[in-house]
Write a structure and sequence with these properties.
Elements lengths: L5 H18 L7 H14 L12 H16 L3 H9 L1 H4 L12 H8 L1 H18 L7 H11 L2 H17 L6 H21 L3 H15 L1 H35 L4 E7 L2 H11 L10 E7 L6 H15 L1 E2 L5 E2 L12 E6 L5 E8 H8 L5 H4 L7 H15 L17 E5 L5 E5 L4 H8 L1 H5 L1 E6 L2 E3 L11 E5 L16 H32 L6 H10 L5 H9 L5 H12 L1 H10 L29 E4 L8 E3 L11 E5 L5 E5 L5 H7 L4 E6 L7 E10 L3 H11 L5 E10 L2 E10 L2 H12 L4 E6 L1
Parallel strand pairs: 2-6, 12-16, 13-15
Antiparallel strand pairs: 1-2, 3-5, 4-5, 5-6, 7-8, 9-10, 9-11, 14-15, 14-16, 17-19, 17-20, 18-19
Helix pairs in contact: 1-3, 3-4, 3-9, 4-7, 6-7, 9-10, 9-11, 10-11, 11-12, 12-13, 20-22, 21-23, 23-24
Length: 747
């Protein structure tokens, strides 16, 4: 059971009275009684224990709640959620024995409290992944996870309280870790929200714990020089006050000393001792001006000050004429005051000062740090709502719909990556490395297998799966959102085309060499142009893709080089006559090799066909039973193509006079090699089922099978020997009936 010491009891009673005074009538009649009952029960059952520093979590929650109410402005829902927070963060509580469910919270305290507690739970889950917190991306992801901005405000208050209470902690390592998080994460968040006092306190305490000697060195120096510094400020502003009063201006002036952390940063940046930091303080002159007189009166004050003290023109910052993009307006000058000391003076009006103090001119942007776009407006509006004291009802509209344009995801190592909304697994793969992207076949998101098309969502942990046989495809350009991924895919496709072109060129040169034909560049260029290709690369790519037959290219080359020799050789051929002079056999068999048909000529192909040199095209691999046509080559031979050959359209358009009708007759000439593509569910048993079907077919021989998994599917190519199309169709039908097979198609 968690028990309070006498000191802790005294503190708790005092804080309870402070909370009651600050919260006023915001609590409902039974709220306090319900909270007391829940917290006492949790302590009695040992569900809350002292933390790593030995601090009482219930007392800490009370102190945090007071900070959230008094210094930030949270009201009822924020107070109750803060007090219930210890019940969520206790790692010792068994997940199957939860004392307080979200349903119970909602029933007892309403949806506002449960929404905040859900946000706090999500943030705790985020922390358990041990991500790298020293990044702007983590801060934005934290905001995205929190959803309700009050979650972040409570966390800031909690961290301020922890930093105050661990000054005497014995666990130095834990204190260092807490201080680092305060410096990297919570201080910037507090600054974004315009919580300047808390931000400075977090930075100073972080410095105290992380750079102990530096902190106390500067603190002692400030203490030793405080009286002198205060007198100097008074001596500096007194003549200015007299002059401005004489001019009839309404104003007030104040001097502020830089925080210890700011001074330390100056010392490091300028590589100087404490005495070398000349702008330990700044003077702010705030005018009560009518809107139409603001700029004029600010410049009047500037004139008065520069008449009295020598200005440094390099240090003039005019944000009156052209306000900063975030709306910040002010006039900053640095002048040489008494004792030859440089003093920074800020001149602004009440309106300008109010805007700046509400965080809309957040100092971290003023220092030149880039912001996150719309996030600034959102945080600024929240800060305004806090200061308006509207019981936080306006918070309902501040959901994270602002982040609909960005998502933040984790790598397996816990690093955070930012992507535009709609980005997919493939975008993530190319972001990691172009090689990973080129070989991507899918991913595991939060332990679940997904395809490369899967969209990314904030908080996902993404692990890419790859395959060495995977290659980029043009349709991938439609799957990705980022320009980085698109450019990498285009480059990979271009490189692949270039490699294919080199391969095709080497193949063509080798075939020319085998025929003992020397390639002349001028004739080759004529050939490429005559065949309808504008670019040489397109020509070689067509050869690589088997859209062009190498033998045909050679024949056309010879025709251009020496057309008379080709014609003579063709005419002199007696054994194998030109198919151009060939009159084809009719189905009734009455016409012979030179017979005439009544309507159309058809080449009838069977194993007994003599006198005609024909072969089956390799681009489409026709087999007995396919609808086919013949294409007459220059040498007089005929290539047999399938009617649905990918090159059929081009051959008919360019060389229609060489195309002849053809059909099969008799029986097939042995077995033919064909390749099938099979797509199905990724199941290891599917391969055994496919091979079993083929093994049962006695008249079909399997030559090879190649399998891969892409987009979470089984995809394989199967090469077999079959007699004709009827056997092929029967085989395809049986394969389609195999469990898990989605599609079977012929390549």
């Amino acid at each position: 059971m968690l028990s309070f010491t006498d000191t802790e009891k005294t503190k708790a009673l005092g804080i309870i009275e402070d909370i009651r005074h600050s919260i006023g009538t915001a609590l409902l009649p039974l709220d306090e009684e319900k909270l007391r009952r829940i917290l006492f029960k949790a302590m009695e059952e040992g569900r809350v224990q002292r933390d790593v520093f030995g601090l009482n979590p219930v007392l800490m929650a009370m102190q945090t709640a007071y900070i959230a109410i008094d210094e930030i402005g949270l009201r009822r829902d924020g107070l109750i959620a803060t007090l219930l927070y210890p019940l969520l963060v206790n790692d010792d509580t068994a997940s199957d024995d939860v004392m307080l469910t979200m349903e119970q919270v909602e029933e007892n305290f309403g949806t506002g409290v449960s929404a905040i507690l859900k946000g706090l739970q999500r943030v705790q889950e985020l922390y358990k992944r041990n991500p790298v917190i020293e990044s702007e991306n983590f801060r934005n992801l934290l905001l995205s996870f929190a959803e309700d901005m009050r979650v972040i405000l409570i966390m800031i208050a909690d961290r301020v309280n922890v930093m105050r209470e661990i000054k005497d902690a014995q666990n130095v390592d834990a204190r260092q870790r807490v201080a680092q998080e305060a410096s990297y994460l919570y201080a910037p968040l507090a600054h974004k929200l315009g919580l300047y006092k808390l931000k400075s306190e977090l930075e100073d305490l972080s410095l105290k714990y992380l750079e102990h000697d530096a902190y106390y060195h500067i603190k002692e120096k400030l203490s030793a020089t405080k009286r002198v510094r205060d007198k100097y400020i008074e001596d500096f502003i007194e003549p200015i006050r007299e002059k401005l009063t004489a001019m009839g201006l309404e104003f007030h002036m104040k001097g502020r000393t830089k925080s210890i952390h700011s001074i330390w940063q100056k010392m490091k940046k300028q590589k100087c001792p404490f005495e070398g930091v000349y702008d330990l303080f700044a003077i702010r002159i705030i005018l009560d001006s009518a809107p139409e007189n603001e700029k004029m009166e600010c410049w009047q004050v500037y004139s008065v000050i520069t008449d009295m003290y020598q200005p440094n023109p390099k240090r003039l910052r005019d944000w009156l004429s052209v306000p900063k993009s975030n709306g910040y307006e002010s006039l900053h000058i640095t002048v040489l005051g008494p004792e030859k000391k440089w003093v920074e003076v800020q001149i602004r009006t009440e309106r300008m000062d109010e805007i700046a103090e509400k965080g809309l001119a957040a100092h971290w942007r003023y220092k030149g740090v880039k912001s996150g776009g719309g996030m600034d407006e959102w945080l600024g509006a929240i800060r305004a709502a806090l200061e308006a004291g509207d019981d936080m009802q306006v918070m309902d509209q501040f959901r994270m719909d602002l982040y609909e344009d960005e998502v933040y995801v984790f790598t397996p190592k816990g690093e955070i990556r930012k992507f535009p909304a709609g980005a997919t697994v493939l975008d993530f793969a190319y972001h990691i490395h172009s090689r990973i992207g080129n070989q991507c076949v899918g991913a595991r998101i939060n332990g679940k297998n997904v395809t490369m098309r899967e969209p990314l969502r904030s908080g996902d942990t993404v692990e890419i799966t790859t395959s060495v046989s995977q290659k980029p495809k043009r349709e991938w350009l439609q799957l990705v959102k980022t320009s980085h991924a698109k450019s990498k895919i285009r480059k990979a496709l271009s490189d692949a085309s270039a490699r294919d072109g080199v391969y095709a060129k080497e193949l063509l040169e080798r075939r020319f060499k085998n025929r003992k034909i020397e390639i002349e560049d001028s004739i080759m260029h004529q050939l490429i142009k005559k065949m309808g290709y504008k670019e040489v690369s397109e020509f070689y790519l067509a050869i690589a893709n088997e859209q062009l037959d190498v033998l045909e290219v050679i024949e056309r080359y010879l025709e251009i080089k020496n057309p008379s020799a080709v014609n003579s050789a063709t005419a002199a051929s007696a054994e194998t006559r030109s198919a151009a002079d060939f009159v084809l056999r009719e189905p009734n068999g009455e016409e012979g090799l030179h017979g005439k048909s009544g309507s159309s000529d058809v080449l009838v192909i069977d194993r007994n066909l003599k006198g005609v040199d024909y072969s089956l095209a390799k681009c489409c691999h026709p087999i007995y039973g396919d609808d086919v046509f013949g294409f007459v080559t220059v040498s007089g031979g005929i290539k047999i193509h399938r009617e649905d050959c990918p090159n059929a359209t081009a051959l008919r358009e360019r060389f229609g006079y060489r195309v002849v009708k053809a059909r099969w007759s008799g029986k097939g000439n042995g077995q033919y090699v064909i390749t099938l593509q099979i797509i199905g569910n990724d199941d290891i048993s599917i391969v055994n089922n496919i091979t079993s079907v083929i093994a049962k077919e006695g008249n079909i021989t399997m030559r090879s099978i190649n399998i891969d998994t892409i987009d979470g599917l089984f995809r394989g190519t199967l090469t077999v020997m079959v007699d004709d199309t009827s056997r092929l169709e029967a085989l395809a039908k049986k394969l389609r009936s195999v469990k898990g097979v989605k599609a079977v198609s012929r390549l």
